[in-house]
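User: hey, got a sec? need Putative pterin-4-alpha-carbinolamine dehydratase folded
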Amino acid sequence: MADILTPEERREHLIPMGEVGWGAVSGRDAIRKVYIFRDFVEAWGWMSRVAIWCEKWNHHPEWLNVYRTVDVTLTTHDADGLTNLDIKLAKKMDALAGASTAASHQSDLSEPIACLCNPDAPR
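Assistant: Yep! Here you go:
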């Protein structure tokens, strides 16, 4: 089982992720990003490419697809919180979305990611 991110790892990884659209999920030790693609085919193609990595790493997102929008939440259920697996998958998702010229994101739907940098703080 993967270990929960330390406070140092949270500061190192989460703050920069907030700058590229990742946010905190209220009440959970989880991160969220909403990707918006040009159309359904772009969104589904991206999800298919991500799914290959998810299977390879045996780490799977909570996600919802509606037409051209994919709403992603990452947390490691076995560890009951954020681990390096979530960071690794989030970065891979961003890289794969960056390969699509049609991808953007909506960042006003989540809490500020900085609130996850202190795992002992109440959420």
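Quick note: The chain has a mean pLDDT of 87. Let me know if you need anything else on Putative pterin-4-alpha-carbinolamine dehydratase.
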